[in-house]
Amino acid sequence: MENLIKGLHQFQEQYFSANRELFEQMAKGQNPDVLFITCSDSRVDPNLITQSKLGQLFVIRNAGNLVPPYGSANGGEGAAIEYAIQALNVKHIIVCGHSGCGAMKGLLNRQKLIDQMPLVYEWLAHAESTRRVLVENYANCRGEQLIDIATAENVLCQIENLRTYPLVRSRLHSHSIALHAWIFEIDEGEIYAYDAKTHKFIPADEPQPLLELPEYQMPEPCPAPKRFEPHQEAHLPGAGRLSATQADRIFRGTSR
Ligand code: ZN
What we know:
Layout: H1 2-18, H2 20-27, E1 34-39, H3 46-50, E2 57-62, H4 76-87, E3 92-98, H5 102-108, H6 113-116, H7 118-123, H8 128-137, H9 143-162, H10 166-173, E4 178-185, E5 190-195, E6 200-203, H11 232-235, H12 244-252
Parallel strand pairs: 1-2, 1-3, 3-4
Antiparallel strand pairs: 4-5, 5-6
Bound molecules: zinc ion (ZN).
């Protein structure tokens, strides 16, 4: 804790003083382009690994970089996603997993968590798709390799969860948002990004819009609604079932 207090003083005396203008500008409001969803792990620092400045990333962090599917939880994740898209108009959403993730290890032995960490057990239900993919498709994998695969499959499953949000779906439809699945390899200091064309994680050297909706032919614009041309028969009671003369007679009733 002493180190943190020392850090606070250092921040105020050095970094803040040197960047006072930036902070004054930031105090007026934020305008980030990117929603960055990553793990709470102390070794993952979104601003550090992307070398981004104050105000550039809107960040959600939780155990396992999970995105509860729309409507499945009343937690802060959904609210933060909604706010980032609707109020801040972010253009990119990055889900970033990392090597050696404790949440992925927990997911692989989820049943063991029930007694000791019941809340973590519950939370990991949002990664059930990941667990199922692993159980049914990677039965021969073990140890570190399985954790790496869990991390990779999990960011893709969480991207799918993101797509359940009406706002995300709508912005994908208008091509005004792009989704990215990243993995941070801690020991290499390397970021790998999922390439939807080759279905592989490749070094994220070039920013590319990945995981957008596939291009497809939009249907022809809907024809303008037919203008309703009222004619006498349509206004008369019984029109359709009666002849025009009959309907007219009944409509006029006895006043005739
Ligand atoms: Zn983690």
